[in-house]
Amino acid sequence: MAERDKYQGGVPAWCPGCGNFAILRAFKEALAEENIEPGEFCIVSGIGQAGKFPHYVRCNTFNGLHGRSLPVATGIKLANHDMLVMAVGGDGDMYGEGGNHLMHAMRRNIGIKVFVHDNQIYGLTKGQASPTSMEGMVTKVQPFGVFSGQFNPMAMAVSLDCGFVARGYAGDHEHLKGLIRQAIRHPGFSLVDILQPCVSFNKVNTYEWYAQRVYDVGDGHDPTDRGRSFVKALEWGDRIPIGIIYRNDRRSFESRIPVLNKGTLIDHVIDWETLKKKLAETLHEFY
Asked: Are residues 130 and 120 in contact, defined by beta-carbon separation less than 8 angstroms?
C-alpha cells in the first residue's frame, strides 16, 4: 500500500482530466513524506469544486460557507495552535468571496497554510469569469469578454508582506509536492497559488497553454528580496514563474499571544467561578 493511501477519503466527483486530481495526489504524498498522520491536521474549505477537496482526504475537516474558510481556520488555529491547519479553495472562493479574509489573514501572519486551486474560472457554477480570469476572456456570462482587470494574488501577497508566497502548477507533480511541503513547514501564513486547467469550462488556459509558459524561478531568484520578489510577482504572459516567490521570517500571530504560551486553549483549565463572576458583573453593567 502506498503511504498516501492512508489519507484516502471519498471518491472524487471531479471531471476526468481535472487538475484537481494532480493536486490531491501531490498533497497526499507531501503529507506522507512529512510523516503527518490523518488525525494531526485539519482542512477547512468553502464552496466550489476545490471546496470538495477535504471530502476526498481522511482528516479533520470543516466545510463551510463560500469564501469564509479563513475565519474558521483562524478560530481552529487559535484554539489549538499545535494543530496543522490548512484552508483550500478555488480562485473564486478564496480571491473573490473570501478576498477580504485573505488579506487580513496575511496581515496577521497566522500560521495557516492556504492552497488555492486556481483554474481562472468558476467551475462548480459552470463557467463564469473569476477574479483571475484574463481580461478579454469570453465566457457564457461575459460574451463580450471580461472587462475587469485580472487579479494578481502573488503581487498582493508580496505587497502585504505575506510570510510565504508561492505558485505551483498541477502539471509539474514533483515541483508542486515540494512547494506543499515547504509551505507546511513555514511557521507563519503560507499562500500557494496552484495553476490548474479546467478541462470543461476554460478552453484558454489549457495544459498546453501552461506548458508553453510556466518556468521554475529556481536558485537564481532570492525569495527574501522583497523588491525583486514583487517584480517577479508581476510577471505574467509569455512567461509565468512558479516556485517560491517571496518568504520572510515574521513571527506568527499565535506566537505573539501571551496566553498561548501556557499551552493550547483547548488544554487550559477553566476557572468557572471567576467566569461566572465576570459574566454577572458584565450583565449588571448593562441591565
From this structure: yes
Residues 250-274 have pLDDT tens digits of 999 999 999 999 899 998 888 899 8
Distance of CA 159 to the CA centre of its chain: 17
Under 8 Å CB-to-CB from 189, ≥6 apart: which residues?
105, 106, 108, 109, 110, 111, 112, 114, 162, 163, 164, 252, 253
DSSP secondary structure, 57-125, as one string = B-SEEEE-STT-HHHHHHHHHHH-TTSEEEEEEEHIIIIIITHHHHHHHHHHT-S-EEEEEE-SSBTTT
Is residue 246 classed as helix, strand or coil in its secondary structure? strand
Report yes or no: 19 and 211 within 8 Å, Cβ to Cβ. Answer: no
Q: Where are the domains of the chain?
A: 3-286
Q: Is the pLDDT of residue 229 over 50?
A: yes
Give the CATH fold of the 3-286 domain.
Rossmann fold (3.40.50)
pLDDT digits (tens, 9 = 90+) for 57-86: 999 999 999 999 999 999 999 999 999 999
| Alpha carbon distances (Å) from 59 to 12, 25, 40, 43, 127 | 15, 15, 8, 7, 30
Tell me the Ramachandran region of residue 263: left when phi exceeds 0, alpha when psi lies from -120 to 50, beta otherwise: left
Q: Which three cell numbers stand for residue 75?
A: 478560530
Distance (Å) of CA 158 to CA 113, 177, 230 = 16, 22, 6
